[in-house]
């Protein structure tokens, strides 16, 4: 991973502005970053690559999403009933 990306992840404090979600309500941003994290993990692990770049998405969704939502989604993934496409 490049030094610039590693430095950005190291200095990460909260989710940066995302032009795809300009409104105050960040629900879709939360859900999209949760999906992106799991899609990234799946894609890179299937290729046998390091999944460290996926940490960015995890940090973003953990700073935006209520933990009760994340716990519910994790349970749904384990049970095979998650509504999103991963």
Automatic annotation (TrEMBL):
The keyword Protease does not apply. It is found in: Mitochondrion. Transmembrane segments: none annotated. One of its GO terms (cellular component) is respiratory chain complex IV. The keyword Disulfide bond applies. InterPro entries: COX6B-like, CX6/COA6-like_sf, Cyt_c_oxidase_su6B. Keywords: Disulfide bond, Mitochondrion. It comes from the Eukaryota. CDD domains: Cyt_c_Oxidase_VIb (cd00926). Disulfide bonds join 30-65, 40-54. Belongs to the cytochrome c oxidase subunit 6B. Component of the cytochrome c oxidase, the last enzyme in the mitochondrial electron transport chain which drives oxidative phosphorylation. This is Cytochrome c oxidase subunit. It comes from Oncorhynchus mykiss. The gene is CX6B1.
